[in-house]
């Protein structure tokens, strides 16, 4: 369920594929921990996309992610703090998100142009 949502919104947010894969991996780790049972999938997906984009050096504002996924910012910030607690306990690993896959890095101006010309 989560990977479908993530794949759908990766295109809308114009994020690179490696960020999407990192978000999917993070979502899977969270699901395997069974800590966030009963939470909305959309909220967890928004959180994982935010974290993956941040670690992948293509950060998007939290407000933008919340608007696109139609979730409340308050809920995403709570899930974010829960994921960071899981990280500090060693139950979730974020190292996979730091590596770049052979794509050339683009300047901030180029990323801005791509992000807002498609909107």
Separate helix tally: 6
**What's the total number of strands?**
0
H/E series: HHHHHH
Biggest beta sheet attributes: none
Ends distance: 26 Å
Q: Tell me the radius of gyration.
A: 14 Å
- How much helical structure, as a percent, in the residues? 55-70%
Poorly predicted regions: none
| Binned strand content | under 5%
| Average pLDDT reading | 80
Shape: globular
Structural class: mainly alpha
Question: How is this fold's topology laid out?
Answer:
Blueprint lengths: L1 H11 L4 H17 L7 H15 L6 H8 L3 H17 L18 H10 L2
Helix pairs in contact: 1-2, 1-3, 2-3, 3-4, 3-5
Describe this structure as you would to a colleague.
- This protein has six helices and no strands.
- The chain has 119 residues and is mostly helical.
- Helix 1 crosses helix 3 and helix 2 packs across helix 3 (41-55).
- Helices cover 66% and strands 0% of the residues.
- The protein has helices at 2-12, 17-33, 41-55, 62-69, 73-89, 108-117.
- It starts with a helix and ends with a helix.
Features:
mainly alpha; 119 residues; 0% strand
